[in-house]
Amino acid sequence: MSEIIDNRAHRIRTLKGIIKHLHAGQPPDAVREELKQLVRETDYSEIVAMEQELMAEGMPAEEIACMCDLHSQVTRDVLVQIPARAVPPGHPADTFRRENEALRGALAGMRAAMAQVLALPADAPAGPAPAEWRQAYNNLMDIEKHYQRKEHAFFPKLEAHGITGPSKVMWTKDDEVRTLLKDLGAALAQPQATAEEWKLLAQTAGEAALAAAEEMIYKEENILLPMCLDTFTEEDWAEIWHASPRYGWCLVEPREGYAPPQPVTPKSLEIPSGEPVQLPTGNLSIEQLTAIFSTLPVDLTFVDAEDRVRFFSEGPDRVFARSRAIIGRLVQHCHPPRSVDVVDRILNDFRSGRQNVAEFWIQFQGRFVHIRYFAVRDKENRYLGTLEVTQDVGSIRALQGERRLLQYEGGIQ
Predict the structure, then answer these.
(1) Around Cβ 259, how many Cβ atoms within 10 Å?
(2) Topology classification of domain 296-397
(3) Which of helix, strand or coil describes residue 271?
(4) 382: how many CB neighbours lie within 10 A of its CB?
């Protein structure tokens, strides 16, 4: 047993040293050959351990993510392809795999549409992007649901088991795919361009977006899913199953066949019975309090003084989906790595008393969203945490004049 452990530790050290050479600028081909000579085979767990150790030694997750595709290229020849573990139809892992298969089809459709563009004659008249290309792009954009579910349902469970490296790196790579697809979509929306311009777009932004999405599918199939299947308990999978509809499905629907156990509600989430909650201005039952939070036209999320998510409201039209998996999670882990420095700055400014409010407004999925953060303090001005208040204010911005008569939706009553 000790020999196996030593061999594994040696492989991880070797992987780490070679990846450091890659980061230092050694050519990928040379690194690949060196790796093949020193390591005959490795598996996903050793890749994950290597990345975790690099981050523990101070290498930023962003730097690892920046080199992630090169890591994949140089380790692909020695990475053991673990046979897909059988799971029941409809199991979250089954749905995830089927989504990836559907995404491969969408990517193939996009590539076929781009091939048609590349075959256009040079003297073809200028015009909008071909309809087949735009339709293939629209199909591929369903990938957002896949990424959202991965980031907000799968990653919290990994972190609960002490595995933080892959989620930070993968989230950064997800955002790269999002940016490439967004840029491609903006270019495809041009009213017209010449055939040569469409060809150039296909060869540059189009190919870059497809390659990035394909690389992420490889990482999910060969690293993320095997890791989750080896790590998660049945209760973890049940919680992921129950949380998943909040984020939606990518190109396919879950199959029938998986019967998850009811997730165990943590003590911190159990609804107590008994006397109403006594507040300075009145008292409310837990049922009333829950209903009020669910009725408010704003979404609330509270982060405590230790930067952990402790509460969120559940309205019918939440702007940003939430699942119970985030309760107790560090708020920094709930955001993409590129925005964590902003999150830390707000929290530090609130904690120190330098600031009390931070606000943003963004366009998000056709909505105009107002996001405000408030420092929460007690009577002695001690910092208790931060309250996030999010609201779709599009209809409010559109108001004009006055309304002095009672009018419900659908007409005057």
Answers:
(1) 10
(2) Beta-Lactamase (3.30.450)
(3) coil
(4) 10
For 145-174, how does the pLDDT look when each residue is reduced to its tens digit (9 = 90+)?
Answer: 999 999 999 999 999 998 888 888 889 899
d(CA 103, CA 117): 21
In angstroms, the CA 176 to CA 90 distance is 29
C-alpha gyration radius of the chain: 25
Q: What string of DSSP letters covers 46-107?
A: HHHHHHHHHHHTT--HHHHHHTHHHHHHHHTTTB--PPPPP--TT-HHHHHHHHHHHHHHHH
Task: Output the pTM of the full model.
Answer: 0.79
Between helices 2-23 and 28-38, what is the axis angle to 10°?
Answer: 170
pLDDT score at 270: 57
Q: What region, left, alpha or beta, does residue 25 occupy, with left being phi > 0 and alpha being psi -120 to 50 degrees?
A: left
Domain range summary for the chain, segments of one domain joined by +:
2-58, 92-246, 296-397
Pairing of strands 309-312, 299-304: antiparallel
Asked if 188 contacts 200 with a C-beta cutoff of 8 angstroms, the reply is no
In angstroms, the CA 151 to CA 145 distance is: 10
Instruction: Residue 164: count other Cβ atoms within 10 Å of its Cβ.
Output: 18
CATH H superfamily, domain 92-246: nmb1532 protein domain like (1.20.120.520)
Tens-digit pLDDT profile for residues 267-285: 555 556 667 888 889 999 9
Q: Which amino acid is at 36?
A: K
Q: Tell me the average pLDDT across 222-248.
A: 93
3-state helix, strand, coil in the chain (%, to 5): 55, 15, 30
